[in-house]
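Can't paste images in this forum, so I'm doing it all in text. The chain is below; anyone willing to post the predicted structure tokens underneath?
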Amino acid sequence: MSQPLDQQVQRSCITAFNAIQPPAHISPSDQTINPHARGIGLFLWSAMAIVAVTLAAKISTLAQKPPLLDHIDAITNLRFKELMILAASVEFVILVAMVLSKSQWWKAISLLLFASNIAIYRILSLQAQQQLCPCLGNFGSIIKLTNTQTNVLLNSIAIYLFIGAALTVYLLPPPNRRPAQRPPS
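Text version of the structure:
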């Protein structure tokens, strides 16, 4: 006796789902069946792209040596040039850590620490109501954004990175924990 079509499709989907293996670059601790895996991977790739673009913007601005780099940051009391060099160094380290790490959880932790620092700086700068470090360098002017629009973009990036990294850390088990065993079907 033949099964109804919807049961055959369901059985085929289950068989195909069970046959899917996680990519080789994901560590064994991340190989638990996680319904959020694609979203997590997409978030981490987008975060790496954001960090790479902001790093490139800082390097480009530092190479052009605009007079704005001589201004003093109200939060850190550093010249914008020094603050940009520090931020670019941190971004480079985060980017390298994310590229080299095999664990999505460690990528998310490093990104969460980085995003926390950005968020704290952005909150403090809102309270200080002073000119912010031009963290995107002259990238905002290249794509024809006003200073206000550039700050909105940077605040949005900080929120995106912080919430995304926090959710990723929450959704993934730490690498030293054994994954939960699937119940027998």
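Residues 16-26 have pLDDT under 50 and may be disordered. The chain has six helices and no strands.
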